[in-house]
Design brief:
mainly alpha; two-stranded parallel ribbon; two-stranded antiparallel sheet; 28 helices; 52% helix; 2% strand
């Protein structure tokens, strides 16, 4: 019995749809299917789909597999993935084909997947996305699944524009005009455009006007949707209908002609455009109260703020706020009170939930202010919320501000991809856990962005990207936003989370925890409690506790940095003249008590034994105490006065 294999589009869609399910059995099966299938133009089907779903780990595995089988990127569909790969894994050598795509060189391959989109579709060049109108029409017409599911799946596979045949297939499955309008609304919600052809415009017009009979005649007529594009053909068909006295066909064609004869209506502003324009106007001429009023309305109507507006908005919100709280505000509102800071925290989180890129400097400003004001519970809460913003449950892509995008490496491409190096047995995830890979080709050491020549410690301050090199040439497109996948480990040295919680901030968190609580009465429950609450329950070690919680979320925290910072703060705490609560006597501040408290906060042993800790403290004190001559003077003056 003869068997007929699917065409390239069908097989590519099949492979991409199942590759999203990153399970060992499915991946092993798909690998065998791919190895033995005759097609080798599948890179642009699978890799971009996995990347768009937030699965960069799977995308890199499939990329490696494709390159091994001489299957290369051929279209701009793979551009976002390659842009991400070149910046966050700079030691991965790209192939010539990938570098050409990345640099937007003229790459033409009429036999490739990008040009095989539609052999019989005369308007295929109009449609963005990976699949031809002919293929998507067959997919939408299939009765094995609902229209809603089919549309959602194709959108997940990268469909961004549909043509007349696809629209016809979707509309034919609906019972009436209302059903067609529901599908049109679904396209709008997903951001799928409908090609501006005569047939599509007629379907949309009849559906919106509630012309059930006209819509039914249009969908069921035997005229191919592409034939409506030729005005001479339409006139000829209209004359033939009148001659044959086919009044329903004649009326249909007359309505189509009338629709085309009407002047193109001025494009009405959508609600999103209108509100964003109002916000821009308010930002330009009005006070922050009016701006917040418009922004509140956008939130209530679920309208997203545009990237440009968000940047101007946040710049207004952070006016007068920097890394150090102002003493004038503390005198006016109290030591720990700052209404402007509270407003900035509230609005920053709201803006971030609109899916726009937030410069990491704003997050650091908020964290430094909370820490320096001693508002540790709020510091903990904001830290958790920032981590959640960069590890969303549904996955997908996370926007990164252009100022925080790492630069592109200046390396020459190689013909083959030799991702050699020390293979590791595990790969990291944002939750901080290690999971065994489902593939034999384990990921390279660049899983955390390091190479063999580089130290394993994460850099304290990564070099800032130059503005001219921040984005690829695709960045000239105002709609292009650089994104990272949700599964990129926080431990990657270029991850925004790693840049926010850098070594300087980690040391500062420990310093704030010791210095701000030293003058307060010790919390008696800090050494004996069953269910600890917030980080403030850990008294002097509240900063250590916060770093331990961040480490559990996947943030890289250098244990040696933590140990060194703790010993330094203990040495400073014993400084003569240092403000200490009366109850914090030598017994309370003894190495034994401090070690027990710190290690409960950290969750495991981190400090040396009591004897070694005492020796290190005595060794550290002279080095640090010389930096505090004024405290010594105050202490000696008090003793002399006594």
């Amino acid at each position: 019995m003869p068997t007929f294999r699917p065409d390239l589009n069908s097989f590519g869609a099949f492979l991409a749809s199942f590759a999203i399910a990153f399970s060992p059995v499915i991946q092993s099966t798909l690998t065998r299917i791919y190895v033995f299938n005759p097609y080798r133009e599948l890179y642009d089907y699978v890799v971009p789909t996995l990347f768009d779903s937030g699965q960069s780990h799977a995308a890199r595995v499939w990329r490696k597999r494709f390159v091994l089988f001489n299957d290369h990127a051929m279209s701009q569909k793979s551009m976002p993935f390659l842009d991400f790969l070149s910046r966050y894994f700079p030691k991965v050598q790209l192939t010539n084909e990938e570098s050409a795509i990345l640099n937007r060189d003229a790459v033409t391959n009429n036999d490739g997947a990008a040009s095989d989109i539609a052999d019989n579709d005369i308007h295929s060049s109009q449609y963005k996305g990976l699949f031809s109108d002919n293929f998507t029409a067959r997919w939408f017409a299939s009765s094995w699944t609902s229209s809603e599911f089919a549309i959602n799946l194709m959108h997940k596979l990268g469909l961004r524009t549909i043509g007349p045949q696809s629209l016809q297939s979707v509309a034919l499955r609906e019972q009436d005009v209302q059903g067609v309008n529901d599908r049109l609304a679904q396209f709008r919600e997903l951001g799928i455009d409908i090609s501006p052809t005569v047939y599509c415009n007629a379907v949309i017009s009849f559906a919106q006007r509630g012309e059930d009979e006209l819509l039914r005649d249009l969908l069921h007529c035997d005229i191919h949707p592409d034939e409506f594009e030729n005005s001479e053909t339409r006139v000829m068909l209209l004359a033939a209908s009148a001659k044959q006295q086919d009044w329903s066909r004649e009326r249909l064609l007359q309505e189509v002609e009338a629709l085309m004869a009407k002047p193109a209506p001025r494009k009405e502003k959508t609600l999103s455009e209108e509100l964003n324009n109002n916000l821009w106007a308010a930002l330009s001429t009005q006070g922050l109260a009016k701006v917040r009023s418009v922004f509140d309305k956008m939130d209530n109507l679920s309208v997203s703020i545009e990237q440009t507006n968000s940047e101007v908005f946040l710049a207004r919100v952070f006016e007068g706020i920097w890394y150090h709280p102002k003493l004038s505000k503390q005198k006016l509102h109290g030591y720990q009170e700052d209404p402007q800071l509270d407003r900035a925290i509230h609005l920053s989180l709201r803006v971030a939930r609109h899916g726009v890129a937030i410069p990491i400097k704003y997050w650091q400003i908020l964290l430094y202010n909370l820490g320096r004001l001693g508002r540790f519970n709020e510091l903990e809460q904001l830290s958790h919320e920032i981590c959640e913003l960069y590890s969303p449950d549904p996955g997908g892509l996370i926007p990164v501000h252009r100022c925080d995008v790492p630069p592109k490496p200046k390396s020459k491409p190689k013909v083959s991809n030799n991702d050699t190096g020390g293979w590791v047995e595990y790969h990291s995830f944002p939750d901080g856990k290690k999971k065994t890979s489902h593939f034999k080709e384990e990921f390279w050491r660049a899983e955390i962005g390091l190479t063999e020549e580089e130290p394993k410690e994460i850099a304290t301050k990564p070099e800032p990207a130059t503005k001219s090199d921040n984005l690829s040439k695709q960045g000239n497109d105002p709609e292009y936003t650089f994104c990272i996948p949700a599964d990129l480990p926080f431990t990657n040295r270029q991850h925004p989370i790693q840049k926010i919680f850098d070594m300087s901030l980690q040391r500062a968190i420990i310093r704030w925890g010791f210095d701000k609580t030293l003058g307060q009465e010790p919390i008696q429950l800090s050494l004996a409690r069953v269910k600890p609450g917030g980080i403030t329950d850990f008294d002097l070690a509240c900063g250590v506790r916060l770093l331990a919680l961040l480490r559990q979320k996947g943030v890289y925290v250098d244990q040696q940095v933590v140990r060194s910072a703790i010993i330094k703060r203990l040495a400073v705490a014993h400084l003569p003249g240092r403000t200490r609560a009366r109850a914090r006597d030598d017994r309370e501040m003894s190495p034994t008590n401090i070690k027990e408290l710190v290690e409960k906060a950290w969750g495991s042993a981190i400090l040396p034994n009591e004897k070694q800790l005492s020796l290190e403290l005595e060794k550290t004190k002279p080095k640090l105490w010389k930096n505090f001559p004024k405290l010594f003077e105050k202490s000696y003056d008090k003793n002399e006065n006594k």
